[in-house]
Amino acid sequence: MTEFYDKMLVAIACLYVAFSLLTFLVYGFDKMAAIRRGWRVREDTLHMFGILGGWPGAILAQRLLRHKTRKRSFRSTFWGTVFINCAALVWLLSPFGAAWAYRNFGGL
Q1: Helices 2-36 and 95-105, axial angle in degrees (round to 10)
Q2: In angstroms, rounded to a whole number, what is the distance separating the alpha carbons of residues 61 and 25?
Q3: What's the gap between Cα 33 and its chain centre?
């Protein structure tokens, strides 16, 4: 199980990096669309990327691109997705969550 846990940590880190990069790019696309008054990315889609682990990239995009920083309802929902993602991560790294992951994904 220790070997599985180590692999799970690496996989989780890789997923966070990949989703953060993808989320940053999606925010960038949406920022450009906002400037050009073109097709926009749905806020639900941005939140989905955040809750799947892309929230660090979303925070960077919000700060560096100055995008999605004014609308209070968006920010409230965004921070809710960050909380949910972090709570899920804490559970997954707990003995209960790790045992669940091992039972369901240990053979992969």
Answers
A1: 90
A2: 8
A3: 22
8 A C-beta contact, residue 58 and residue 50: yes
- From the number of C-beta atoms within 10 Å of its C-beta (0-12, 13-18, 19+), residue 43 rates as middle
- Whole-angstrom distance, CA of residue 81 vs CA of residue 48: 8
Residue with tokens 């220790």: 2
Is residue 105 over pLDDT 80? yes
- Which residue's entry shows tokens 């180590």? 6
Q: What is the DSSP string of 13-53?
A: HHHHHHHHHHHHHHHHHHHHHHHHT-----HHHHHHHIIII
Dihedral sign for Cα 45, 74, 40, 32, please.
Answer: negative
First and final C-alpha spacing in the chain? 13
Helix (H) and strand (E) counts in the chain: 5, 0
Chain segment 70-85, per-residue pLDDT in tens = 899 999 999 999 999 9
Q: Look up the pTM and report it.
A: 0.89
